[in-house]
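To close the chapter, one final illustration. This time we ask the reader to focus less on the individual chains and more on the assembly as a whole: which components sit near each other, and how the overall shape emerges from the parts.
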Amino acid sequence: MNATPKPTNGSWSPSLVAFFCNWCTYTAADLAGVSRMKYAPNIRTIRLMCSGRVDPQFILDAFSKGADGVLIGGCHPNDCHYAEGNYKCLRRFRLIKRMVADLGIEEQRLRLEWISAAEGEKVKTVVNEMVDQLKALGPLGIPKQFAEWDAEMTRLEHAAQTSQSAESEVAHA
Amino acid sequence: MPKPKIGIYWCASCGGCEEAVVDLAEDILGVVEKVDIMFWPCAMDFKKADVEAMPDKSLVATLLNGAIRSSEQEEMAHMLRRKSKYMIAYGSCACTGGIPALANQFPREQILRYVYEESPTTVNEAKTRPQLKFAEAGREVTLPELRNVVRSLDQVVDVDYYIPGCPPTPKITKAAIGALLEGRMPPKGSVLSPDVALCEECSRRDSKPTNVAFTEFKRTHQKHLDPQLCFLAQGVICMGAATRQGCGAQCPSGNMPCTGCFGGTDRVKDQGAKALSSFCANIAAKEADEIDQTLKGIPDPVGTFYRYGLAKSLLRRKAGLPMSNGK
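The assembled structure is written out below.
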């Protein structure tokens, strides 16, 4: 999965990865679509059977692969198709939100919303609001950081090899 | 037939891994009988130049412990990689960053300032810091440079095998050396420890509750720990379920919960996220406020879940920290 959207006219535009549950929020997004509601095209939706399936690894993976924000959508409390899945999601969310903040990722980049199948309008509002917030925050740019760290290593490897060959030349002279 | 040659080296580590080699006790004699240790700065008097003079790939294996966080450690890792047929990451720090990788939460400048100026036991009114170069009496001496990022060994050089643990136990060390000598090595990139969660070999396993329903989390100093009961049943964070076995459940046997030093199993991409997932999902509360109340018992999630693995976690380091040296 590559979360980085293609740059439009060279200008940056945020990438929002969304994990929507099959029974409520994904259906709501579908409703927003058939109702021809317009919302920001920055969202990349991944459909899961339940918000309880959102493994915290998915969230970190999305950020590490270039997402500027992650949105999770599930059924309202007491409405989960699997009875308890959304509670599991909420409990994980409360701590992962704190943990990603400790790791330097701004709070507004990770959001959980309960959106029922009838709430197409809410999908539109939440996505637009979050994309606006991400635009204000600017790029998170974790892949760029990884590339910088790796480049430091490549430079050193090159330097080590150069000094090695210089040494062997001296030895042979 | 000449004996196979091995090297043992340390980078950013505490010395515990060297101790673990010594912990082979009388078995080390068997090892020394079968191999020549060509390089082990902690215990033997061979110099870097001795190894550099050896032909490439002349060591069968180097067991390298410690994370990589200075220019010298990088250089040594590259040199030993060239000289060794197998590069083996030995111990948590080399495998996943270990305790030193917790420094990936802070900018380098903050670490240096604290260590050389602000720590309560430091007296340094002139605010002297180590310099990369220093000339005295016409001679120039140099020191390695501290990098911004703490790295696992495989983020610096190609690694063939991993022996995890803080430190690795004599049992898995012996098994790995035996496999190496007999040419029974698994596919490249394998972790040389069973790919099963620690709970499987834990003596408290039978008391692991099927429905945990945490109402509070207690840290080990806040509670009188029952010596037999599963830590999860006591509301204590035990990383066993998210950690690879191979240590023989030493910590739970000593009445301390697992802190996760062997890393996750092969199926797990990010041990910390997986542990967090499991603990949180099993909280009893359903309302955000009550959940937060329970979660107050985990004041430092990064330090709890990534104690040994921040460098190899999905995010590797705190985002947005300065990168270029000198800033």
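The CA atoms of residues 31 and 120 of chain A lie 5 Å apart. DSSP finds five helices and four strands in chain A. With these observations in hand, you are ready for the problems at the end of the chapter.
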